[in-house]
Write the structure tokens for this entry.
Amino acid sequence: MSGNSLARSIFPKVRISAGRRPYHHARRVKGSFYKERALGGALTYHFETRYTSNPMTSFADDAHDLIAGYRRFRQGKYPEAASLFRTLKDNQTPATMIIACADSRADPSMIFDAAPGELFVVRNVGALVPPFDETPGLHGVSAALEFAVTSLKVRQILVMGHGGCGGMAACLAAETHQPVGHFIAPWVEIASSVRKTVIEDTTIPETDRLEAIEHGAVGLSLENLLTFPFVRDAVANRRLSLDGAWFSIGRGELHWRNRTTGRFETVMAEVPSVR
Ligand SMILES: [Zn+2]
């Protein structure tokens, strides 16, 4: 079994129902499609009971739930994942970088059903990319971007915002002179131009402003990516593509940003049947 095939079999899509069911998966891997039937035609889904509406509140008190989660990992997914981890131990070659929000509810690895080694992920408040800035400072996002593009040579970067984003809500709140936090307020000011545009757009009802700024901030971050010379060069030479997306937490729905129109379009959750 190849590394990718193994990865698919041990990190299946999350399903709530228990038991064994037929499992087919068609997926683009390094420019080609392959289809597989894992574990002899059926796949046992582990940890269905993990996905409940009850958060692990004891994280706040001690490490009990973290240790318990680690033990589930070691007993459940890890035995089958061990050879994949051994393959990955000295090197990573992810083709995709994702810049997402730190929000606990919008996890790129889960949303994109990705295995270790497949996604290079940077998460921060608001899924924001700052503009290229060479002044001295601690440029965490820029460092990750530099590594992803110049060393890992990722072929695509996805900026993914999400619904109900606290970071974008903080940006919006600053307009009414309620800056949030010592570090948060100046950070989310990256999207201040989007806030201005959204507030001045009289066609956007006040209740829709948050989602509008979440969408707009994705577009702004894509623009900011192009202010980095190494990103601009890679895009110009067709070695790198940039895209945006937005995830609805309540609906579990991914919306993809149209590169031409900048509008967000719902991604069909099922593969359309071919007639
Ligand atoms: Zn957020």
